[in-house]
Amino acid sequence: MAADLRFKVVDEAFKRGPVQVELPKERPSEYFGKYVFNKQKMFKYLPAKVYRKMCDVIDNGAPFDRTIADAVAEGIKTWALENGVTHYTHWFQPLTEGTAEKHDGFVEHDWKGGMVEEFEGKLLVQQEPDASSFPSGGIRSTFEARGYSAWDPTSPVFIIGDTLMIPTIFISYTGEALDYKVPLKKALYAVDKAATAVAQYFDPNVKKVVSNLGWEQEYFLVDEALYAARPDLVMTGRTLMGHDSAKNQQMDDHYFGSIPARVEEFMKDIEIQALELGIPCKTRHNEVAPNQFELAPIFEETNLAVDHNMLMMSIMKRAARKHGFRCLLHEKPFKGINGSGKHNNWSLSTDTGVLLHAPGKTPEANLRFVTFVVETLKGVYDHNGLLKAAIMSATNAHRLGANEAPPAIISSFLGKTVTELLEHVENADDDALLVAGKQAFKLDLPSIPELLIDNTDRNRTSPFAFTGNRFEFRAVGSEANCASAMLTLNTAVAEALTDFKVRVDALIAKGEAKEAAILKVVREDIKYIKPIIFNGNGYGDEWKEEAAKRGLDCETSAPLIFDNYLKDSSVKMFESMKVMTKFELEARNEIKWETYTKKIQIESRIFGDLCQNHILPVVTKYQSTLIDNVHKVMSIFPEEKAKAISKENLYLIEKMSEHGAFIMENIEKMIKARKVANQIESEREKAIAYHDTIAPLLEEIRYHVDKLETIVDDEVWPLPKYRELLFIR
Ligand code: ADP
Ligand code: MG
User: Fold this and answer.
1) Among 43, 260, 342, 618, which has the highest number of CB atoms less than 10 A from its own CB?
2) Which protein residue has the closest C-alpha to ligand 1 atom 17?
């Protein structure tokens, strides 16, 4: 049955051929940002004074002056109407997945019986979507259902189809954040302030530090018709059953292999759309697993990069359908082969360059480099459990800890060069590092730059690896909003840098020279952060033991990992850096637990349905055919001979009964466990119950379903199999 479908899909795809994408006549550099109201457009469509004010807002974080809102809205409207736009929407990132939007037309009564296109400043700046249907974790009691979305002028408005999209933040009536963007922006502000103060030790001219993010998005493509025949994929984004394909990724022939023609057209399509929307796409390639691919743009300022990633994910999902695919962003759509992540390449830079860049030019630059690397690691060490919580979800839990992605323990890989550099700074005599009598460093490390550029011993098993001029946070899930990881990391680093400055200043106040004071504190911290540094194999079991000894967070249960948000050290960090209040953190955790529960609940329900309505009936039918055959054999052969002939069938009949019985029994057990869990009041306890009593049953039962798949006639198997889903032709 599924096999017939497969033939049909392949046949149709073959007849149709790849959906050809027409290349724009202009070069990418010419159509880049075509549908973005960027500075070029602002210059053209805004009065000069307003344009200058907008630049000040974007570049220097100046407050957005409401008096220019009408002029800005007017400019945007003119540009939008020229591009055939009829609607606008505030585009925001609620605490569910993805983005949310509510479209309104530009039209207003003209009070002469007609309509006019209208778009005033106040519509640009603020909207009041009904917040009651978005999760708020109890922040919003129903009588205060209102939430506000407010324009974030640092992320430019853009056009999709006939709609003007306005990136906004989303807050409750009482001012609490109901989205990812508000705390992210506060975290970026905190890290700017803290890092600028420290960078000024080395260069007093530094005015601003920017956090950068370059994400690498992994994804799977499957044929749409096959996807539609898998209710589990449709409902949960992953296959809840399915036996291994004989061939999967063992040949390593997909990675960096040539891209199938249909997929190449899809990639072209999404890249053109992305470039038109100002997303600087650069890299595309096959990934390790069959049907798995990756797309990566050049890094950007973190807030913008986060928006661009959200936008990219929706472009991918939409475009896939045009090409007869479905784009899977789930972290683990298929068991037994690699899942998808989203590496978050992170760094800090000033107007004078990347702060984590390979040093070498001057002793000051060398010590500055050491300082920023060490303080980043201090933030990561102090909050390793919290950082894990920031990337944890019901879906990413399948990926972490499996032998393909970083384990569920946060540690950092530095590589040989930087490890040795830190050892040198820690152990060398003062005379070797400070110029006696003068306030100067002599941390000359001329061989460092070459070595770092060549530093290809990238440890793929590390969740937080240093890669030459940045750290790569690799544990982020493919479907996640990068903001969660980025706001946590930037706040942790802001806290470490703030604390660093307090300690250095205290030494200076006691009469220590600035250089000597910095060196002293850096050395203290190099000793302190040792437990977070791990250059070995993160997949090994030895590491789990070792990490536990080092006191790193080794918890693997997602609901318990979320507890990290409410630890004293986390609350203190978020509150002192003015990123989130305890109240907000508590509310967010309610949502995390609730979301976790719902995900497992949906999986468990659809899994039960599939077993009872798809798998078991087919098994019984096939079993009857075999029983029938056995009877017939019995009727024409003497007993002994008949038994010998039917030996295989008898074995299969018995096996099917065993597997079927296990499945039935445990589906019942799972339903009961759900009933018990659903009675639990506390979201936390409920999530724990789902994790402990329901999720494991899914795995246990699946084993038996997958066994049945290998026994039952392919002709009648009701679901497309892995080998059918995983190879695009
Ligand atoms: P990989 O080898 O891990 O696939 P790539 O060379 O494809 O890495 O780059 C991954 C991402 O890292 C890209 O988005 C790139 O722009 C980004 N990146 C490079 N340098 C920095 C930096 N200093 N800060 C942040 N991101 C960076
Ligand atoms: Mg990478």
Assistant:
1) 342
2) 214
